[in-house]
Amino acid sequence: MRHQSLIPLSHDHHHGLALALRCRKQALGQLRPMGTRGLQERAREVQSFVETDLKPHFQAEEEALFPLMRSLVPESQQILEALLKEHVQIRESVARLEEDPSLGKLLFDLGDLLERHIRKEERELFPLFESRATPAQAEKLKAEIEKILAVRHRK
Ligand SMILES: [Fe+2]
Ligand SMILES: [Fe+2]
To answer: Which of 38, 54, 85, 122 is the most exposed place for a label (fewest CB within 10 A)?
Structure first.
């Protein structure tokens, strides 16, 4: 069972995994409409997911969860560095959706990266948090994450 404090992030992960799969299927020509039109539709779907969901999600991880992990679990340093590097890579790939001539490859690679990133957080980072955080720390994190994600409801 996912800890309550992490449920909003896990909820985003669920959507992210579904989108990652659609990106790869689109790139492989397994989703209609095929060809450039379908690829552009997927690219727009990614951009809107990033604007409304992923930006605040990354912010909640980078400003709340990761700093807490760093102080709570010193040995998580390596995985946190890898995750932060992936955030940069994901942001760079998304920025390239506008002009990249090989949209199919870009969407495939982005879907692959997004999925690997989410699985790393769900399978490695979150269990590490759940095994070390005290109820008070988890409660505090829950409030911080909710505060950052609240920006979604103000739109
Ligand atoms: Fe992340
Ligand atoms: Fe995440």
So the answer is: 85
Q: Residue 62 corresponds to which tokens in the numbers above?
A: 């980078």
CA 96, 39, 61, 143: dihedral to nearest 10 degrees?
Answer: 130
Residue ranges of the domains in the chain?
4-148
| Ligand 1: centre distance to CA 33 (Å) | 30
Nearest to 69 by CA among 148, 127, 114: 127
Convert the pLDDT of each residue in 94-133 to its tens digit: 999 988 889 999 999 999 999 999 999 999 999 999 999 9
Superfamily of domain 4-148: nmb1532 protein domain like (1.20.120.520)
Calculate how far, in angstroms, residue 119's C-alpha sits from the geometric centre of ligand 2. Answer: 9
Distance in Å, CA 7 to ligand 1 centroid: 14
List C-alpha distances in Å: 28 to 23, 24, 39, 88, 109. Answer: 9, 6, 10, 25, 11
